[in-house]
Amino acid sequence: QVQLVESGGGLVQPGGSLRLSCAASGSIDSIRAMAWYRQAPGKQREVVAIMSIGDSTNYAENYADSVKGRFSVSRDSAKNTVYLQMNSLKPDDTAVYYCNIRSRLANYWGQGTQVTVSS
Q1: Digit-coded pLDDT (tens) for 10-29
Q2: Are 103 and 27 in contact (CB under 8 A)?
Q3: β 95-103/4-7 pair status
Q4: Within the chain, which residues score under 70 in pLDDT?
Q5: 94/85 Cα distance (integer angstroms)
Q6: How far separated are the first and last CA of the chain, in Å rounded?
Q7: Are 72 and 84 in contact (CB under 8 A)?
Q8: Cβ atoms 22, 92 nearer than 8 A
């Protein structure tokens, strides 16, 4: 059973940056999308960034309006890892962040990592 392990969360001041990582414990075939979601206290889980994957060189990135221009999703196929670079962080970005990898046959979720933006 493939597991996704997230890291990189923590406490950061407004305006700061964090880079989240999500590593798969094994190989995942036929990946369709790699994404990051977040859930703030009392709110529903929302999508932050999605990388839709066609062939090995063709992919599309989409971002929630609230993070456009500040967050960037990327991947390292050789390491089965997806990243979320978060810049110019705001208190409203405080949430538990979850990675998600969807393949042709399965949907995988990480355990979540806390990001707190506060002075």
Answers
A1: 999 999 999 999 999 988 88
A2: no
A3: unpaired
A4: 55-58
A5: 15
A6: 40
A7: yes
A8: no
